[in-house]
Amino acid sequence: MTAADKTISPADGAPAGVRGIAPYRPGRPIGEVARALGLDPARIVKLASNENPLGMSKKALAAAQAVLTGPEAARYPDANGHELKRALAAHYGVDAGWITLGNGSNDILELAGRALCQADDEIIYACYAFIVYPLVAQALGARGIEVPDRDHGHDLEAMRAAITPKTRLIFLANPNNPTGTFIPGDELLRFLEQVPPQVAVVLDEAYTEYLRPEDRYDALAWVARFPNLIVSRTFSKAYGLAALRVGFAVAQPALTDLMGRVRQPFNVNSAALAAAEAVLGDADYLQRSYQLNQDGLKQLAEGFAALGLDYVPSWGNFLLVKVGDAAAVNDAMLRAGVIVRPVGNYGLPEWLRISVGLPEENAACLKALAAALGR
Ligand SMILES: *Cc1c(COP(=O)(O)O)cnc(C)c1O
């Protein structure tokens, strides 16, 4: 082995888990699709990443702009996110010392994994749950235990039965992405009561703001009762800050402290901190986001029904719809300028996940879908 030997690479010795990762496949960006297909980017409809179709809240935008044009823009952000934590604590009635901020809630999911798990530990998640959970497990060399679904959603009984002495972490998404399924609060609570205390539960509530009033439950209040519970939330969906990357976790001090140790000191940037604090105070924006989504879910569901397509009832801001050869339908829709999300990588090759857009975007999507199906 000499320095000149080009047949040997450090990549060869990379951890097997890392080498085995199938990279996360994001919804295709508008610019990329426009370039690839020679389309006008202004006419492309993107319903592929569960983003907020209203665009950013004006209050959030003003706050971010003030940071970027102000004297602090060249400085590091507040490493502890003091102001945002204070605002979150007041808004949600939690202790500011129990909050961990993340670069998106994706960061929170990784922090929980890195803080608590090592190689050969077991991490449980549901089949068709958010694909980042297996990615976290693989990157750590942990064993991902995928529990079969029940009607596309979580089978909590089976997940509890999958717990072994090696289990360290359970990921739950409620509502779940990409299926949109929902676990009622009372069932979740019963599950938490049955999980042994040495096993942490990450309850990923990325879409919780979209729940109808009759379905809402307050997991943040449960954290005081369950020292093994980590509740994860994001500003990327209903709060409309996907580009800025802010999420947070609420957990008791022991787990919060551990996540803080593996966190990058400046993981949330100044513009994001300011925008998140501002949008938290923009109740009108959140209400409009909620209502637009309720209306859009109905519009899409009715459109799917009119086309005779099966779909999974959704509690999120997207719908999973069965179209047959989803790769072909997706290609045809792309050529018509509508970007949706194939979910073959979730083991759902006959389905597409379609995010709720503005009414005219939903209509354009249904039209492209009908055409792609030859209707
Ligand atoms: C979108 C999403 C997230 C993460 O989004 P961030 O932008 O990283 O906050 C987390 N969990 C689920 C289930 C999601 O769908």
Protein architecture, described:
The chain is α/β, with parallel strands linked by helices. It contains 14 helices and 13 strands. The protein is 39% helix and 15% strand. The radius of gyration is 21 Å and the shape is globular. The model has no long low-confidence stretch (mean pLDDT 96). Pyridoxal-5'-phosphate (PLP) binds at residues 50, 104-106, 130, 173, 177, 204, 206, 234, 236, 242, 247.
Count the E strands: 13
Structural class: alpha/beta
> Any low-confidence stretches, pLDDT <50, length ≥5?
none
Q: What best-fitting shape do the alpha-carbon axes yield? A: globular
| Beta-strand content | 15-25%
Distance between the termini: 63 Å
Ligands in the structure? pyridoxal-5'-phosphate
Largest sheet: 7 strands, mixed
Name the average pLDDT: 96
- Reading the helices and strands in chain order gives HHEHHEHEHEHEHEHEEHHHEEHEEEH
Helix content: 25-40%
Radius of gyration: 21 Å
Number of helices: 14
- Strand order within the widest beta sheet: 2-8-7-6-5-3-4
Précis, in short:
The model has no long low-confidence stretch (mean pLDDT 96). The protein is built from 14 helices and 13 strands. With 375 residues, it is α/β, with parallel strands linked by helices.
Write the layout of secondary structure elements.
Layout: H1 16-19, H2 30-37, E1 45-46, H3 58-69, H4 82-92, E2 99-102, H5 105-116, E3 122-126, H6 132-140, E4 143-147, H7 156-161, E5 167-173, H8 185-194, E6 200-204, H9 219-222, E7 229-234, E8 247-250, H10 253-262, H11 270-280, H12 283-306, E9 311-312, E10 318-322, H13 326-335, E11 338-339, E12 341-343, E13 348-355, H14 359-372
Parallel strand pairs: 1-11, 3-4, 3-5, 5-6, 6-7
Antiparallel strand pairs: 2-8, 7-8, 9-10, 10-13, 12-13
Helix pairs in contact: 3-11, 4-11, 5-6, 5-10, 12-14, 13-14
The structure holds pyridoxal-5'-phosphate.
Pyridoxal-5'-phosphate is lined by residues 50, 104-106, 130, 173, 177, 204, 206, 234, 236, 242, 247.
